Amino acid sequence: MGSAEGAGEQLAFIRETVRRARPKVARGLELADPLPVARVLVDKGVLSLDQYFDYAVPAAMDEDAQPGVRVRVRFGARVGASGRREGGQLHDGFVVERLAASDYPGPLAPLSRVLSPERVLTPALLRLCRAVADRYAGTLADVLQLAVPPRHAGAEAEPSPRPLPPPTLPDPGSWARYPQGPAFLTALAAGHAPRAVWTALPGPDWPAEIARAVAATLAGGRGALVVLPDGRAAGRVDEALTALLGPGRHTALAADAGPQERYRRWLAVSRGSVRAVIGTRAAMFAPVRDLGLVVVWSDGDSSHSDLHAPYAHVREVALLRAAEEGAGVLLGGLSTTVEAAQLVRTGWARPLAADRDTVRALAPRVRTVTDLDEARDEAARAARLPSVAWTAAREALERGPVLIQVPRRGYQPRLACGRCREPARCRPCGGPLESVGADQPPSCTWCGTPEPDWHCAECGSFRLRAQVVGARRTAEELGKAFPRVPVRTSGKDAVLATVPGTPALVIATPGAEPLAEGGYAAALLLDGWALLNRPDLRAGEEALRRWLTAAALVRPAAAGGTVVVVAEATARPVQALVRWDPAGHAALELEERAQLRFPPVSRMASVTGPPQAVADLLGLVRLPEGADILGPVPAHGARGEELERALLRVEPGQGAALAAALKAAQIARLALRGSEPVRIRIDPPDIG
Q1: How many C-beta neighbours within 10 Å does residue 488 have?
Q2: Strands 505-508 and 603-609
Q3: Would you call the peptide bond into 310 cis, given omega within 30 degrees of 0 as the criterion?
Q4: Domains and CATH numbers, the chain
């Protein structure tokens, strides 16, 4: 009896404590019981407000205001002496937690409205978004804008389809060409979490291989996520999955589906109706249930790097997610990035590649333009299409289509003085000039101002020459060189998906190369110097990636497939292309990065903005011990504004401390009325 009385007294004490801690709100408002407080993430991407705020839950909203739902709250409101809410603006937010009491001592404003009872922010998604925000020195609200699509009430009202039972484990198919391929699929089906860096073989089979990896994961009762750089690649994997598994087992989160249809598909994933997702960059946050595999195809493609704050990269989000959810990882591509090579070197992932004999049997023959070739043809020294490339194209056109890859779109995207080679600049804004057609005057790429009377400010010459020739000018020139051959172009304005297997010249910019029926008979990779000479740490890696993407569409050497690369034959990326050895090239690049202490061996952040704003931020930041500051140095904005850029470098293991220090410094700068924007990027992909 005594123990019962003691328990009763303890319960009464708890109730009294909760009663006193209950939020103070407007008179007459009945609160939810027993959890009258909602902890809310307010959708305001401001660094100083990157935290949760407590709101009172009216009794009428108790059932709907559950963790994960969208709500409307009055942010900045206060409860006055009369007990009424005063001031503040309505903002969207997410309930992240329900509590019995708040640690905020003052009165709480109540939730204004529950927008939807749909729980779109799951605990796993919230943890992932928080981890991404911390890694990239950003705000949770900014990440959630990428992770959770806008609401469409009509889509929420529709029931999602019933989930299908797991499929049977497919046979390895073309994965049998890789010594470790069948074992990788078996591990996925058994519920394990293998991690691999996959160097795909040339040819059209990689979408089917991704589909089999997804099918093996589904067969093991888990979900799969595939992120690709563009809609064309996503479409190929979509077709391969449909052919292998039939409809209903996967969904494509693509922007071209429209906002409402995309949200309908996203809800089907969130509700567990669909267990496999493919899509482009935003799909990296898709709420797949029981995630067993994350696939990132061509992780070196710039499309995987988000252009909005906090500038997350798909590969890094995939690695964070795999570690958090215990999923397998497949980083695949025709090329290999230094980040992937680092994962292999540290043992975090295993290489997944074919043996050299298989590579040689499937790769085309790669030829370079040597000094001896130029000596045989004096005109080739100044020609854009050396005789070796011209001869290869002429012979290949007897057997099928020929692909010509040109680094730039347009006509003549960069002009220079014909006498002194000084870059041609716009007089009003200083932007670079380009030519858009043979019968049109040059114009500025920044402000669009035409310059019909341009003359060089250095030497006074009125003559212009092209620094880089674009795809349209190339098509014009080759059309004259091969007058009876059809010429097709594929670029930003009009990208071709496929071309027939009949003789034709196909001029394409990188990433826009169409598939050819039966493969191309040859490929010419022009103006390699324009890729290799870029002032960027990744110039060689990016050039090789673009070349391999085009060369992989060419028939094998045994079938007469030939690739001619017009670039310095001794350059490391050119030699890697000749040997078809992207993993070896990445390993050598990684060694050089290690000597220079550049990422991924170290962690780095870039700080870009007006000179005074950058100086203020650097003066406020408290960097980890041993950190280096490189710069600041002048930088040019998109419209030619004068900026400065500094690089901050720390040792491995200090990346989280670097991000936290920069975030704190940015908050302090804004608190001191520093209104000029400063862009912070963690591990920037474009270190010059």
Answers
A1: 16
A2: unpaired
A3: yes
A4: 23-119 (no CATH), 173-358 (3.40.50.300), 364-593 (no CATH), 603-682 (3.30.70)
Cβ proximity of 683 and 132 under 8 Å: no
Closest-CA residue to 120 (of 291, 285, 251): 285
* Helix boundaries (H) for 354-485: 356-362, 371-376, 387-396, 471-481
pTM of the predicted model as reported, rounded to 2 decimal places: 0.85
Report the 10 Å Cβ neighbour count for 638.
Answer: 6
Q: Are strands 562-565 and 443-444 parallel, antiparallel or unpaired?
A: unpaired
- Say if residues 514 and 504 touch (Cβ distance below 8 Å): no
Whether 270 and 120 have beta carbons less than 8 Å apart is answered as: yes
For residue 245, how many other CB atoms are within 10 A of its CB? 21
Pick from 340, 198, 360, 217: nearest CA to 275 = 217
| DSSP secondary structure, 323-352, as one string | HHHT-EEEEEESS--HHHHHHHHTTSSEEE
Instruction: Measure the CA angle with vertex 534, ends 533 and 538; round to 5°.
Output: 110
Phi then psi dihedrals of residue 9, to 5 deg: -65, -40
Q: Are 282 and 146 in contact (CB under 8 A)?
A: yes
**Token representation of residue 235:** 């479409």
The continuous run of DSSP H or E covering 250 comes out as strand 250-253
The angle formed by the CA atoms of residues 73, 74 and 76, to the nearest 5 degrees, is 130
Query: Do the beta carbons of residue 496 and residue 525 sit within 8 Å?
Result: no
Phi first, then psi, for residue 189 (nearest 5°) are -65, -30
Residue-wise pLDDT for 599-649, tens only, equals: 898 999 999 999 999 999 999 999 998 899 998 998 876 666 788 999 999
First to last CA, the chain: 78
- Reduced to 3 states, what is the DSSP secondary structure of residue 603? strand
Rounded CA separation 681/308 (Å): 10
Give 114-143 pLDDT, tens digit per residue.
999 999 999 999 999 999 999 999 889 889
